Amino acid sequence: MNVVEASGLGKRYGSTWALRECSLTIPAGHVAALVGPNGAGKTTLLNLAVGLAAPSAGAVTVLGGRPAGSLAALDGIAFVAQDTPLYKNLSAADLLHLTSNLNRRFDQHYARARLAELGIPLKKKAGKLSGGQHAQLALTLALARRPRLLVLDEPVAMLDPIARHDFMATVLTAMADDGVSVLLSSHVLAELERVADYLILLARGRVQVACEVDDLLASHRMLTGPAAEAGKYAQWPVVHLRSGEAQAHLLVRAGADDPVAPGWEAHPVGLEELALAYLREPGAAALPGPARSRHADVSEVTK
Amino acid sequence: MSIDKEVNGQPGGRASASPPAGGGGKAPARPGQRGPGSPIEFRLDPGSGVPTYLQLVHQVEHALRLGYLKPGDQLPKIRDVVAALAINPNTVLKAYKELEVKGLAAGRPGQGTFVEATLSQIALPELTALGRSLSGWLTAAEGAGLDEDGIVAMFTSTLRDFYERRSGSHTRGGAADRGTEGVA
To answer: Which domain holds residue B104?
Structure first.
């Protein structure tokens, strides 16, 4: 099952396209990370997927073909918006009560147990909680709806390192316990490596990459060698080139078994390095695209 | 001082009783623990550049070599690893699958993953002899002017060349192991 499927999806605000020609599928069972510079269309894509915005073009469905924003879709999705907004003057207990009455399904028992575990006092107003507790409360309200897909917009951007770790631990434990799929947008590239196993790169409103992280890492190599010979790799799909006078680094699409010229070294790349390279080259083609299979990819690189 | 003298002064019972216990030495304070948990805890080195799942695989192998883990021991439960390290459950699953493929661990439905085998080690005298000859080489390398980083670089690149020369018989799995042995 695909938790998100978009085809030709676009959103226009006035005369500006915030997102255009976005086609991608996100299979279930992953933590999918949506990465891109400010203004790339991340929040727009999330808002379209959860039904908070209507597309200007194309269509998006969730959880196996349910139209985004439909009742069937909303039942299975929980969304925590940027900066985890809550009613500041309501206590945690009030928010539990409210959320449980506004939703068809709400697991009071889970929510209360979770808050007790986190040491969040029920009587305290949301506005008086620390940043980490505030975020955890919003997350608890979302998870208590027992969603199949949890959508988080920049969930940890405002949190300190410990709160960030605890927040992600809660998300990932829910995934381990209940198999909930996760779609999150993030700027914190360094932390994605341990969290995300599906990567979507957005640049200038278009999808650059949408691929399983393992496949992505297995199909890219960093080549280091004499700058004068960098041209010999011109026929390879070069994503990014950094060159000094003598030495050059090329990020290319190539597998571990692809031959490397004498005098050149090939290194595997990490997710952060790879994402950065793509983000610096917004024009780099939407490589390992959603429609291509892994095998098609490999044969294309190795020939 | 006085305690030292007392211990030294008793050549009998105590001295002979302690070596077997202390001789194992490498896994203190966890003698044959078989409780509900696992004898080991994972940690992550975000700066190592080694993929997360591979770090977990290496830590299990390391624990097997050093005797922290024995056949029958339980590996940390996936949920516990996820909660402690805030990593993707699929990553832990992948690490445990890799250990199963290597024949080192096996999943028991509804219970968890357990150690199946120990890592074969060569005999101790042979190991000591190899260590001694490596020490000899290290002395020579230092004498020639290499510092520690230089020695590591030299060793790593020679090791890579050594295995690359016979790369026909080596698979991708071998390549991954090699990379980290060089780092270690």
So the answer is: 52-115
